[in-house]
Amino acid sequence: MKACLLGLLVLAAAPVQAQDLIARQAPIDRKLKSVDSVALQRLFERERELDVNYARELYPGWNNRFARSYDVVMPDSFRIDLRGFYMPTDSRRITSNFGYRRAFRRQHEGLDIKVYIGDTIRSAFDGKVRVVRYDRGGYGYYVVIRHPNGLETLYGHLSKQLVDEDQIVKAGEPIGLGGNTGLSTGSHLHFETRFLGRAINPVLMFDFPNQDVTGDFFVFRKDGDYDRSLASNSSRRESEPKNESQALRLSGHFYKVKSGETLSSISDKLGISVDMLCKANRLTTRSKIRPGQVLRY
Length: 297
What we know:
The chain contains five helices and 19 strands. The protein has 297 residues and is of the alpha+beta class. The N and C termini lie far apart (108 Å).
């Protein structure tokens, strides 16, 4: 009788023990899933970092010290993918263009865009932060980011840097705050676009007045013949410009007057002085302009 009762108790306890075992295993399973998720996330981040660094095929190395010092063999041409861009600032006003500055007897290798101290500055493309430094006699607080498309972008005169060297950033991610540091006479963003250390006029790729890029792709040319590269540029929606206005915008050197606009309003939009606009078009400040008129700038 006792043996029968003991047998029944063992049989009754078996399901309970099985349930206890499953209950004890549940936290372990959750921990394993958590570990798997962490490992998977690290793998994704590693793959993303490798994707960002594929520009290493173009560049001889990686350093966190020099903004633009490279000893490379420059290709005759290279197609730069501008898709996935993000404008570095919402400001549309250019206060100083790319080119030679007679007053300083040197080349200005970027654009100065009007921003105010504390304005958010964002990364133009996905990339990896290469330089975060301070240059008292030049850029002030500045950031250099290398992008998978082969470009490097530089953001100067910041009041604060929000990223660290070797950090992976996404297009549109805040990387600094506008400022007036270094060799600067007023708050603005100094923005450079470089390929293998060679400065390229940002207006060939970035259309600040319209907060857009000039096309899906831009062809870098060693000989600097960018009229040809712009002619082969595709628009953001189609490979050929739809009309004269779009073709002029793609060129980056002309502006088509709209109804109600004046020389003053156009100069503010383009970020240049009225005098410069008049000089480029053989006009005076009293000249009347008409809708549809094409102005050079």
